[in-house]
């Protein structure tokens, strides 16, 4: 589902700005405002062209809301007028502001391209091949104008298209085309020369000096949309490009800017649709399988061959906004080879669907597999900090994905709270003369099979904690005694139950002498006599103690 907010955020603040998000109605068509009382229909985004002022804009909003349309796009000043904004909020209708440097004609072309490529029910997620084809055609046009080879790059130095012409090309150009991005040593050279700084700040073409290893000079023409730098045209300039041809290249960038905006917007819409479809599948839907991730029937993401696991992703140091965290994870996943990551946010948490094929594959696993994710986390995470992940149980059919997601969420809560480490530490010897614990860094990736015992105990602990207190509980007397006399009966009993029959380990866990432990145990028996020889009683006591922790 595409909303007015999705369209605005995909095109970016240089073109559209969300003033009022509205109720999030799906957009399936773009229409111009009509000067009558029947403006818009359900699912239509209305473009408010030629409005006289705030009163006319407010009237259009009222007509659009009455018709159930998806929202209104207005220019400033009406879009920012307090009366218009208040009307949109009162009606819960989306209000989008059009940038002052963007024409209505260009906006219609961009929005229609995005909406038309978005999948209706029972169609595929949109692809951007048509836009890429247009970029290659524009690269060939630029090469004819400049009479030299050309590449079109985005603001991150990634190659989007190149001209077919290869004469006068140098090794750096060939490396850039093959690698789909500018080589690091050449990037450093251009940064040192101030090329990117000038491209980001000015509309004027920049002459990049010759570089190492015989790299020829480049004429670089920035591509902008308003104040936003979208990318640039790089011309191999073995000899100076005549001024009239530079002007032609500069004129071509206005068309190129629309293509780059459309490419970015379509990719963003495809990502949003995939995330939304995956979100539905994890709640209980059934996605298609058997093809590459990225666009099956039914509005759901295609899954690679299973089985799969749902993994909860987390990083305590990241921003609280799940959308920002999702963008970070997507960027990292693509950087390490997962070009169409199956990632989504759900109820403020981030999830991935990864494959978990039988062992025997390549070392590190294929991108998008559980082994690959473990290797990724190991490479990007500092010991004891950074990203961590919790994987639910194996899902052998798409219908089992919600169950795996619930398990991953449950395991992730234990991992985030540190309860997995505490449970493991109870079963691990402490050593050292001063009683210091051994180092126990949190695992970067934990599966349900790794920690099923902790999950079972946590479920039992939660059930005990949720129930009403039972009369006859001997721990109540110990708790009251600790509160009134400052004793440590409860932690002493917990350590003894964790290391039952081994006073030395129990004493080390409490950082006390074994004789002190024996003295405390006698005190416990005096306050609340219990028969610790009973396994059932020991289990009940430990669960109740865990519920109080």
TrEMBL record:
Domain named CdaR GGDEF-like is located at: 309-410
Please list the residue ranges that the record marks as compositionally biased, kind Basic and acidic residues. 402-412, 420-431
**Region of interest (Disordered), ranges:** 280-305, 380-445
Q: Write down the species.
A: Streptomyces carminius
Fetch the Gene3D superfamilies from UniProt: PucR C-terminal helix-turn-helix domain
State what protein this is by name: PucR family transcriptional regulator
Highest taxon of source: Bacteria
Per UniProt, residues of the PucR C-terminal helix-turn-helix domain are 490-547
Q: Which family does it belong to?
A: Belongs to the CdaR family.
């Amino acid at each position: 589902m595409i909303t007015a907010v999705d369209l605005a955020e995909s095109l970016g603040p240089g073109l559209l700005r969300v003033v009022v998000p509205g109720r999030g109605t799906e957009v399936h068509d773009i229409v111009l405002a009509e000067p009558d009382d029947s403006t818009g229909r359900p699912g239509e985004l209305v473009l408010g062209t030629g409005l006289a002022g705030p009163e006319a804009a407010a009237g259009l909003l009222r007509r659009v809301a009455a018709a159930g349309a998806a929202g209104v796009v207005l220019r400033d000043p009406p879009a920012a007028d307090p009366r218009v904004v208040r009307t949109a909020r009162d009606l819960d209708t989306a209000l989008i502001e059009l940038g002052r440097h963007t024409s209505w004609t260009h906006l219609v072309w961009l929005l229609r391209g995005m909406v038309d490529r978005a999948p209706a029910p029972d169609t595929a997620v949109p692809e951007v091949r048509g836009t890429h084809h247009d970029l290659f055609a524009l690269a060939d046009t630029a090469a004819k104008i400049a009479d030299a080879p050309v590449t079109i790059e985005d603001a991150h130095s990634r190659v989007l298209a190149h001209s077919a012409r290869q004469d006068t090309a140098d090794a750096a150009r060939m490396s850039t085309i093959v690698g789909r991005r500018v080589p690091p040593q050449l990037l450093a050279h251009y940064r040192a020369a101030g090329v990117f700084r000038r491209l980001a700040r000015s509309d004027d073409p920049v002459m990049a000096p010759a570089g190492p290893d015989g790299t020829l000079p480049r004429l670089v023409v920035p591509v902008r949309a308003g104040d936003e730098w979208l990318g640039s045209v790089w011309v191999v300039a073995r000899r100076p490009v005549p001024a009239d041809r530079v002007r032609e290249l500069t004129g071509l960038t206005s068309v190129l800017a629309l293509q780059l905006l459309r490419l970015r917007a379509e990719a963003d819409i495809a990502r949003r649709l995939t995330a939304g479809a995956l979100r539905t599948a994890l709640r209980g839907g059934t996605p298609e399988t058997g093809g590459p991730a990225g666009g099956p029937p039914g509005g759901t993401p295609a899954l690679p061959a299973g089985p799969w696991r749902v993994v909860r992703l987390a990083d305590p140091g990241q921003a609280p906004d799940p959308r920002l965290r999702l963008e970070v994870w997507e960027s990292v996943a693509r950087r390490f080879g997962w070009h169409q990551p199956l990632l989504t946010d759900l109820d403020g948490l981030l999830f991935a669907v990864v494959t978990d094929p039988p062992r025997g594959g390549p070392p590190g696993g294929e991108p998008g597999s559980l082994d690959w994710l473990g290797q990724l986390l190991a490479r990007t995470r500092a010991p004891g900090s950074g990203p961590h992940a919790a994987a639910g149980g194996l899902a052998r059919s798409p219908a089992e994905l919600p169950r795996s997601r619930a398990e991953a969420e449950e395991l992730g809560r234990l991992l985030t709270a540190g309860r997995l480490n505490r449970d493991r530490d109870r079963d691990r010897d402490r050593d050292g003369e001063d009683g210091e614990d051994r180092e126990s860094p949190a695992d970067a990736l934990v599966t349900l099979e790794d920690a099923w015992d902790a999950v079972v105990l946590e479920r039992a602990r939660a059930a005990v904690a949720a129930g009403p207190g039972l009369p006859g509980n001997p721990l109540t007397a110990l708790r009251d005694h600790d509160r009134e006399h400052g004793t440590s009966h409860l932690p002493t009993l917990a350590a003894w139950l964790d290391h039952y029959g081994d006073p030395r380990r129990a004493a080390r866990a409490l950082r006390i002498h074994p004789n002190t432990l024996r003295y405390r145990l006698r005190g416990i028996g005096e306050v609340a006599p219990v028969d610790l020889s009973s396994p059932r009683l020991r289990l009940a006591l430990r669960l109740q103690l865990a519920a109080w922790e």
